Amino acid sequence: MTLSGKCVIAGIGATAFGKHPGRSSVSLNVEAIRAALADAGVEKGQVDALFVKPPTSDFQMLYTVKVASALGIRTRMGGAWDQGGAANATLISIACMAIEAGQIDVAVVSFADTPRTGNAAVYARPRGDDSLYGWFGTLPGYAMIMQRHMGVHGTPREAFGEIAVAARRHGAANPKAQVRNPLSMADYMAADPLVAPLTRDDCTLISDGGGAVVVMSARRAAELGVAAPVPILGWGYGQTYEEVTYRADLTTTMATVSGATALGMAGLTPERVECVQLYDCFTIAALMTLEDYGFCRKGQAADFVKDGALQLDGALPFNTSGGLLSETGMPGMQLIHEGVRQMRGTSVNQVRGARNVVISNQGGVMQTHSTLVLGQ
């Protein structure tokens, strides 16, 4: 029995993105959840499940209990899920399965963090034994993968520039984006490397903020008169245990499994997808996801993305609110929100006639991956 379309995202809510000095991640979660409940038209007393991605910069035990206590709710189910940036999409699918099993009725999924004004040290942590040889922080792993893709497939820097330029163009039109200045290809190509070949324009923002969604069955949404429910058509996961230095192939990820599972559940092929919101913590991540999801063959992404194909008026509109490169570095939830807006027809960069959207979330250095497909 398929679960495609049985559940919906009934509401979305977020804080402002950027800097929140003095705010706790718990308080940002509460703000985002209240906004999502108001968007869905649901009272907090109707929530019987709370699933939270723990803050990356300040991991805490029993974190969901703290958020529930601050909200003043008791739930039948709850928990925190650590899958890095892949967690938000995964938690939405877990909520769907619990709803279909009859264990819960209305679920909230949320995430908030304060690495911009709090503690960003987690992004600079040493990477196992390789730290003895200078492997610190997140950038070296992605730089190595990007260098390998360029070497094996002859991928030019301009291909990554197409991703950065599209994200920044869309973010420039989004009044809530953290970075709103557009980027030209000339400026992208002229930038100095941070960790070669990565430049600043290839890398995610670091942001404070929070976001939440309300999930329920389509039947329950109809009973409650939810104004704009968005059906969840499919989901999938993929995960590897390997650190970058131990992988046999640096140019393919478990997004191949996650994407194929989600599209299969939704009854879609890549050719029928009309809009994508792809995890762009680094441009190489988004480019490889395009390949691994089957939008183009491995090594052919440079041809696929050229000439503005990812921009709003292109063949496959991408990260229409700006993504992690322009809207906010808050991992994953902002992409889900924009997918919902596209299906509601309320995006500031609305894709005309879009009836489905594929969303990717990713964690670690391409170690975890989750996919959502939304429809109308």
Automatic annotation (TrEMBL):
Pfam families: Thiolase_C_1. It comes from the Bacteria. This is Lipid-transfer protein. InterPro entries: Thiolase, Thiolase-like, Thiolase_C_2. GO terms for molecular function: acetyl-CoA C-acyltransferase activity. Residues 238-375 form the Thiolase C-terminal domain.
